[in-house]
Design brief:
8-stranded antiparallel β-sheet, 3 helices
């Protein structure tokens, strides 16, 4: 995930590779953790709707975690992440879902910055996208199950780092 995040950082101006976003020119805005969780949940739902496949999905919600930072920002920068997976269908259906994402995410406000193999031995298909208004990011990987595991589409939608005086559990 580190290499993927670094690749997106170049496009979206965000860094989750362990450095402060200030070093990339992004000045984190002050935001409510709850507001960002709501925003990421809506964006994640848009990705799910765009798949347009009938599959089972893991039921997780967005959560906030600290962004690594230095100096006076230490402990005040957060990122909201919403990971989930679509599974329980064959690779033919998952392939259709990935095609829908490639075609329709740009119509829904996303810029697709990469479509291709994820670099793994299984050569899984991956889509990396940046939401143009919020600069939130999505990493979507079709794990074909060639290694004996169940085939699925793994989705991770996450925000840019933002400043909050209150911790993620204090709102």
């Amino acid at each position: 995930m580190l290499l993927v995040a670094a690749g997106l950082a170049l496009t979206a101006g965000c860094s989750s590779a362990g450095t402060s976003e200030n070093s990339s020119g992004h000045e984190p805005k002050s935001r409510s953790v709850q507001a960002v969780k709501s925003e990421i949940a809506k964006l994640s739902s848009t990705v799910r709707d765009t798949l347009r496949i009938k599959a089972r999905a893991t039921e997780s919600g967005p959560y906030a975690d600290r962004c690594e930072s230095a100096g006076e920002e230490s402990g005040k920068l957060y990122r909201v992440t919403h990971p989930w997976s679509a599974y329980g269908v064959g690779n033919e259906v998952l392939e259709q879902g990935m095609a829908h994402l490639r075609e329709d995410l740009p119509r829904r406000g996303w810029k697709v910055v990469k479509v291709g193999e994820d670099g793994s031995r299984n050569k899984n298909m991956q889509i990396l996208a940046v939401h143009l208004r919020t600069r939130s990011q999505a990493e979507i990987t079709w794990l074909k199950g060639l290694d004996g595991h169940e085939a699925l589409i793994e989705v991770d939608v996450y925000s840019r780092c933002f400043r909050s005086e209150r911790g993620p559990d204090e709102e």
